[in-house]
Design a protein that fits this description.
Layout lengths: L1 H58 L1 H12 L2 H28 L3 H26 L3 H11 L5 H19 L3 H33 L4 H60 L3
Helix pairs in contact: 3-7, 3-8, 4-5, 4-8, 5-6, 5-8, 6-8, 7-8
Length: about 270
């Protein structure tokens, strides 16, 4: 009987031991899982921070690449291309400002001149023309100034002054055309020099290795690229300036015809 009781006690202890082991292991597993979750959270936060920091770098990559490639080019050839672009843009800005100020409301101006001519005569009309700016005002002023010499002189003075004003409108435009042609030529010159340097490196080494010729070819291509970019920028502004000049010249011709008609009517009205 004692042996049976002892056996039953041993069996009961054997079943309770795993339960106690599981109860003791549960807190330990919980404690182990908590640091693992914290590690995953920290890793995710670090990844988000890295992506956020990489975003501005990607956004500024184009400008950085542009600056890097410009610096990598040979300064001997890149500097003249940059100088041509800067001087060309300076001339463009000057022409745009001049043409903008030369543009005016010709219809309104001619109405004011006609009103002054009918009410106060030639002197009043000349005063109105003198107070306005632009090539049309200059044409009208010179035409009025020669009215006393006859309508033929008025016509001739308008033609002469129109030629002068047209020359002023087209002033310095030839320089822009020169810079448009010069920029890619400098780039191509840098290309030729870079290729010569690459062949010199091959001749000196006695072997065709990509590492030997890569530097010279890269310089050659970069100078060509930047020369073409400078030429394209100046070409756009060149065409814009030409269109503005054509528009102003057409308005000058229309205003000249209207002014001559006005003077003929005034001349008939005054019995000359």
């Amino acid at each position: 009987m004692k042996k049976v009781f002892a056996s039953a006690l041993l069996v009961a202890m054997a079943f309770q031991a795993p339960v106690f082991a599981q109860d003791a292991a549960a807190p330990a597993a919980t404690e182990t899982a908590a640091p693992a979750e914290a590690t995953d959270t920290a890793a995710a936060a670090a990844e988000e921070t890295t992506e956020a920091a990489a975003a501005p770098a990607e956004e500024s990559s184009y400008t950085q690449v542009f600056k890097k490639k410009f610096i990598e080019g040979d300064p001997i050839w890149m500097a003249p291309v940059l100088l041509v672009l800067i001087v060309g843009l300076a001339v463009v800005i000057e022409r745009l400002l001049y043409l903008t100020f030369a543009s005016s409301n010709n219809a309104k101006f001619l109405n004011e001149v006609e009103a002054a001519l009918n009410n106060g005569g030639v002197d009043a009309a000349m005063k109105v023309a003198y107070e306005h700016r632009g090539p049309v005002a200059t044409l009208v002023y010179q035409g009025l100034a020669h009215y006393g010499e006859g309508m033929d002189m008025v016509d001739k003075s308008i033609v002469a002054v129109g030629s002068v004003e047209n020359g002023k409108l087209e002033r310095n435009i030839t320089w822009i055309a020169l810079f448009i042609a010069l920029a890619p030529m400098l780039g191509f010159l840098g290309t030729v020099v870079g290729m010569i340097q690459a062949f010199d490196a091959i001749e000196a080494a006695g072997d065709i290795s990509p590492t030997l010729v890569a530097g010279g070819i890269k310089v050659a291509l970069l100078t060509t690229v930047f020369g073409l970019i400078a030429a394209m920028i100046l070409q756009v502004f060149y065409n814009l300036i030409l269109s503005m000049v054509d528009g102003i010249v057409n308005k000058m011709e229309d205003a000249s015809i209207a002014f001559l008609d006005m003077m003929i009517s005034f001349d008939k009205k005054n019995g000359k």
